[in-house]
Amino acid sequence: MADSLSFDNTLVSNLGIEIIEVSEERIVGTMPVDERTHQPFGILHGGASVALAETVASIGTFFLIDQENENVVGLEINANHIKAVRNGKVKAIGTTYHRGKTTMVWDIRIVDEEDNLVCISRCTMAVIKKKKS
């Protein structure tokens, strides 16, 4: 699980994102739909969905790399917002399209509590070498 990472005082903790599953095949995270993630019209903000999608892709990639010598950063993300959500919780399920040595491309599907599709996203992560101190 994502226990080896600290999310304290980050966007992840401020939005209430929780990683609930990490495996070789997929990663799953949840996020509340509340005042932290609403847009002014009282529905889930598209930017919050994108933040959830990139968080899932980032953490998923992190657990597939050599953590001693490599790190991950977002390179590109897109999203299509399909359905509005007013409250509850959304779940993001991420799977890889491509697992390369320098990039990984993720498919992230965000659903509501009834498994209705809320957002689809594709995120490309760059795998970079850590700088030696």
Automatic annotation (TrEMBL):
Keywords of the record, alphabetical order, are: Hydrolase
Q: Which InterPro entries is this protein grouped with?
A: HotDog_dom_sf (IPR029069), PAAI_dom (IPR003736), Thioestr_dom (IPR006683)
Task: Give one Pfam family, short name only.
Answer: 4HBT
Q: Which domain of life is it from?
A: Bacteria
Every copy of the Thioesterase domain together lies at 41-119
* GO CC aspect terms: cytosol
Q: Does the keyword Protein transport apply?
A: no
One MF term from GO for this chain? 1,4-dihydroxy-2-naphthoyl-CoA thioesterase activity
The entry sums up its family as follows: Belongs to the thioesterase PaaI family.
PANTHER family the UniProt entry points to: 1,4-DIHYDROXY-2-NAPHTHOYL-COA THIOESTERASE 1
Write down what this protein is called: Hotdog fold thioesterase
Origin species, per record, is: Chengkuizengella marina
